[in-house]
Write a structure and sequence with these properties.
Number of strands: 4
Strand content: 5-15%
Helix content: 40-55%
Order of helices and strands: HHHHHHEEEE
Strand order of the largest sheet: 1-4
Structural class: mainly alpha
Shape: elongated
Radius of gyration: 41 Å
Length: 230
């Protein structure tokens, strides 16, 4: 049976009427028995006889209260659990709140890293122990890495600044800004809008155009090179 406020009220009054009837019967029986015992007990029996109605009334009230509490618990337990939206019912807006890294394709990262290695020798540079070289040698190597990796970005990735202002210029961070786009540093207090100095413009990807990865490439980032004839 569906639990509604009307059902609960009707059940409450039904229990109340039952308790009153039961209390009246118990009181009548106890009063008759006590009348016979008063003569044997004397004055003490008369004193207890006067307290009998109050005792029976208290017991009836406690019984009624216990039934009301039980009804409330049964009513709360019978309420259906709120339905939860299924995965298919999630809207596009809710899906956009999922972490940006939850659907990352490792194949895309592989392709981009392979391009950086192929044209800029980035992996070779990062794997090298730079403590074995002086600053002049490192500077010459960095120039080649920079030129090769920059060519990859220009060819396959279109970037634009998050904020178009010049670094070092004053900027205002508006109310409702995206923390993923703007990171606040320094003495951050209160609520937006915030006024501060732009230290880094940030970068946002507008387009990525990577070559299709073939199954033959497997997980080889860069092939080993063997020169024949020596």
């Amino acid at each position: 049976m569906k639990k509604t406020p009307g059902n609960f009220v009707r059940a409450f009054f039904a229990f109340l009427a039952f308790d009153l009837l039961l209390a009246f019967l118990v009181y009548a029986l106890a009063l008759g028995w006590w009348g016979e015992a008063v003569g044997a007990l004397g004055a003490d029996g008369a004193l207890f006889g006067k307290a009998l109605p109050a005792a029976v009334g208290v017991l009836a009230c406690l019984a009624g209260l216990g039934q009301v509490v039980l009804l409330r618990r049964l009513q709360g337990g019978a309420q259906p659990e709120p339905s939860r939206p299924s995965a298919e019912a999630v809207s596009g807006t809710d899906a956009a709140k999922v972490s940006r890294f939850a659907r990352t394709d490792p194949g895309s990262a592989f392709q981009l890293l392979a391009l950086f290695q192929r044209k800029g020798r980035l992996v070779d540079f990062l794997q090298e122990d730079l403590s074995l070289y002086d600053d002049a040698q490192i500077g010459a190597a960095v120039r080649g890495v920079h030129e090769g990796c920059k060519s990859v970005l220009l060819e396959h990735v279109r970037l634009r600044p998050v904020l178009d202002s010049e670094e070092g210029s004053p900027v205002t961070v508006p109310v409702g800004f995206d923390p993923a786009e703007i990171q606040l540093t320094g003495d951050v207090r209160g609520k937006p809008p915030f006024r501060g100095t732009l230290r880094h413009r940030g970068w946002k990807i507008e387009r990525i155009d990577l070559p299709l990865k073939t199954s033959a490439e497997n997980t080889i980032l860069a092939p080993a090179e063997v020169e024949i004839g020596e």
